[in-house]
Write a structure and sequence with these properties.
By secondary structure, this protein is mostly beta strands. It has no helices and 31 strands. The chain is globular and about 55 Å long.
Length: about 260
């Protein structure tokens, strides 16, 4: 039954309460919040929920869309927040932690996704980690998000036209890994195992990647900022100090760097 746009359905606790959804004793260990294509257009709001011990704490697949998630605390799952072919999703003030594989994974043809003031920590294998996205995903923005203590990269995002603003990566294998055209501004990377910022590229792709007003500090085992061959890098008003290897490294075959 279509619902009026002025009354989007909300899932949250009563005033003064915080519901806890725990899948630990459920047969088959399902997803906590499981949304498929039917939910498109309803503008669902999920707010103030704790989710524990599911396969995915949140799953949106098969063209699900137009949902908002606010103030979630989700942990102990195989994966935290999982999108596959989903669109028009907003996530704010939420935490995804202590998951086996990843905190946030964006896959398939997911698009138009925004995260604000979110934390991913203590997640994953080396193949997973904090925020990750496939190269088929489009139109992603992260603002004031934190990736901390993840086994893989903090932000490993193969998205074209990516925007990260005011984010922090600390104590991950690598802080930020950009692969296509993207903007990294007002961001910080501290004490990650390898690079603070890795500017990579996909095969047969020659992206332009812009780093503005960023700080890289701490004993990164590899370069503080590592620019791979074939990447056109603009690095402006950015500090890189304290790494065990070069503060800034350009691979052979890299276009002349721009900026200062």
């Amino acid at each position: 039954i279509p619902l009026p746009a002025s009354l989007p359905p909300s899932f949250k606790g009563k005033a003064g309460t915080r519901p806890v959804l725990d899948g630990g004793t459920l047969v088959g260990k399902p997803d906590g919040i499981d949304l498929e294509g039917f939910c498109t257009g309803y503008n669902f709001i999920f707010a103030g929920l704790d989710l524990r011990n599911f396969t995915h704490s949140v799953s949106m697949i098969q063209w699900a869309g137009m949902c908002r998630f606010l103030d979630l605390d989700a942990g102990g799952a195989r994966g935290g927040f999982y999108l596959h072919d989903a669109s028009n999703v907003f996530v704010g003030q939420s935490r995804f932690h202590d998951d086996t594989n990843f905190g946030v994974a964006l896959k398939g043809y997911s698009n138009t996704i925004e995260f604000q003031d979110c934390v991913v920590e203590n997640n994953g294998t080396l193949d997973g980690g904090g925020f990750e996205a496939e190269f088929t995903v489009d139109n992603v923005r992260l603002s004031r998000c934190v990736a901390r203590n993840n086994a893989g990269e903090g932000f490993d995002l193969k998205v074209d036209g990516l925007q990260l603003d005011g984010c922090l990566a600390i104590h991950n294998t690598a802080g930020y890994a950009l692969w296509r055209n993207g903007l990294l501004q007002n961001c910080e990377a501290f004490d990650n195992l390898r690079q603070g910022i890795a500017l990579n590229r996909m095969p047969d792709d020659y992206p332009t990647q812009v780093v503005v007003n960023c700080t890289v500090a701490g004993a990164h085992g590899d370069a503080g900022i590592d620019v791979k061959a074939g990447v056109a890098a603009w690095i402006v008003n950015t500090i890189s100090v304290g790494s065990l290897s070069p503060a800034l490294r350009f691979a052979a075959g890299t276009p002349p760097p721009q900026g200062r």
